[in-house]
Specification:
Elements lengths: L1 H48 L4 E8 L6 H8 L7 H12 L12 E8 L4
Antiparallel strand pairs: 1-2
Helix pairs in contact: 2-3
Length: 118
Amino acid sequence: MYGRKLRYERRRAYERKRNFLILVSGLCLALAFTFLFGSFLSQAEAKESDTIYYKYYTNIEIQPGDTLWDLAEDYMGDQYESRAVYVAEVRQINGIADSDSIVSGQYLIMPYYSAEYK
């Protein structure tokens, strides 16, 4: 009986040790993947922010039905805080008063950003 109990206890100790090692290796593997995946994400974010945008100006002819707000949607891009900020800049560049009145056939200078260097 004593030999049987000893074998049972040894087997249980071996199983506990094996389970503990599996748990520790799983945690180490999870940490390794976390660091590896995190480094890929940080590299991807760094590459995105490395893009340099250049500011350009283009001259456009106003078409019937055009408004400054519609044109802002077409030209402003993500570099401006809001459409209102962009429209204010267009007004300032073109010497337009606070009104939104533009006339068909009139030409406006519109700023825009591009990653392409011209």
